[in-house]
Amino acid sequence: MRGYDFAGNKELEADLSALSENSSFTLVCNTKNLPQLQECGLAWDKAAVRISTNLDDNMYYASYRGYDFLSLFFLNINCDNTCQAKLSIFFSQKYLIVVLPEQPDSTIKMLTEDIFVAFETAKDKAHPLTYLYHYILEWMVTNSSNILEALEDEMEDISEAMEVMVDKKQNTGISELRKKAYTYKKLLRAFSDISEQILIDENNLLDKESLRYFRIINTRLHKLHELADSLFAFSQELLHDYESKLSFQMNENVKKLTLLTIFFGPPTIISGIYGMNFANMPEHNWLYGYPFALGIMLLVSIVIYIILRINKWF
Description:
Layout: E1 2-5, E2 10-12, E3 25-30, H1 34-39, H2 46-53, E4 60-64, E5 67-73, E6 86-92, E7 95-100, H3 106-122, H4 128-164, H5 168-200, H6 208-274, H7 289-310
Parallel strand pairs: 3-7
Antiparallel strand pairs: 1-2, 1-3, 4-5, 5-6, 6-7
C-alpha cells in the first residue's frame, strides 16, 4: 500500500489515522487492504467492496453518496486471463483509491509504476486527484489502442500469408484472433458506457475544465470500440476467405488428379487388353504389334491433350 497526501505534502504510511478532515490523498493498494481502509473511516457501500474483490469479468460503475466507484478491466494479450487485469477505483473530493488484484499481471504492474511517477506531476496541479483519475483512464485508453493496433497487424500478416499458401495453422490463428477481437469489442463497449456515466458526474466531482478532458477520453473510447467491431468483422472475413481458398486449393488438387487419370487411363486400358493371355489375339504374333500398341497409346494421349487445351483445363 502506497500513497500521497497532497494537502499535507507527504507520503502516506500504512496507517491512515493521521489524515485530517482537510486531507486530499491518493492511495494504491490491493484487495486485502480494503478491511483496513474501512476501519480507518472509509464507509463504502458493501456492494462496491464486494465487486472490487470479485474476479469476475464484468465492468461496473456506480455513484454512491459522496463518491464514485469503478471496476474496470484492461485489454490483455491473453484473453483467457482478463481477471488478472482488473482494477477498481474509489473517487471522491477527498481521495482517489486504486484497488489492484493480489496477483496483478504485467500490464497492471506497469500502470502502477506510472501512477507513482505521476504523483510528482500531480503535486503541481490545481486538482491533483482529478488529474490522477484522468491519467489512469487515459493510460488505459492508450493501452487499448496499442493492443488493437497489434491485433490489426496480426490479422494483416495472416491475410498476406494466405495469399501465398493456405494451411491448417492459419485456421487456428484466425480462430484465436477472432476470439481476441470479440473479447476486446465486449470490454470496450462496457468501457465506453462507463465513460458516458463518468461525464454525467452525479456527485459533481469534476470541474468544467476537467470534464473537457474526460469527453476526449469518451470520444476515443467510442472510436476504439468501432475499431474493435471492424476488427471482429475482419476476422470473420478472414475465416470465410480461408475456407474459400482452402476449398479452391482442394478443387485444384482434385483437378490435377483428374488430369492424371484422364492421361493414364486410356493407355492403362490398352495395356490391359493386350496383357490378356487369350490364344487368338492376332497382334501377339504380329511383327509390328508392340509399336502399334505404343502408337495407339501415344495417339490417344495427344488427342486428349488437344481436347483439354481447347477447353482450357490447363
